[in-house]
Amino acid sequence: MPNLAVWSPRLLSVLRIMAALLFMEHGLMKLFAFPGPQPAVPDPLPVILVVAAWLEVIGGGLLALGAWTRPVAFILSGEMAVAYFTAHVGRSGTIFPALNGGDGAVLFCFIFLYLAAAGGGEWSVDAQIRKRP
């Protein structure tokens, strides 16, 4: 069996990029209804959702590039924890993600927490800056 460990930093980057792009999509849906409107989002957006949307768009963009990965991922992990407990548990009254629709928020929260610890991987702006003499 080939040594798959050499792929670990690259796949970390792939995980970061894909999670960031999917995350950005949620912010774009809230702000610009692109690629379509986000279901169950009030119009006009309350201030907390405007802040969340900009965190998702800007933070997702920075994560996709792998720029300031650790602090950005930590902030976004916190955003998702707050979103889970306010929007999912708060509305449904149950803590189980499968019942309250919070699966995505929980996954984003823990993926971002992992990225805050692991960094951006081999294919990131952070890694390129570290390589400079």
UniProtKB/TrEMBL annotation:
The chain crosses the membrane at residues 12-33, 45-69, 105-125. It is a multi-pass membrane protein. It is found in: Cell membrane. It comes from Caulobacter ginsengisoli. InterPro entries: DoxX, DoxX-like_oxidoreductase. The keyword Cell membrane applies. Its main location: membrane. The keyword RNA-binding does not apply. It comes from the Bacteria. Keywords: Cell membrane, Membrane, Transmembrane, Transmembrane helix. Belongs to the DoxX family. It holds the Pfam family DoxX. This is Oxidoreductase.
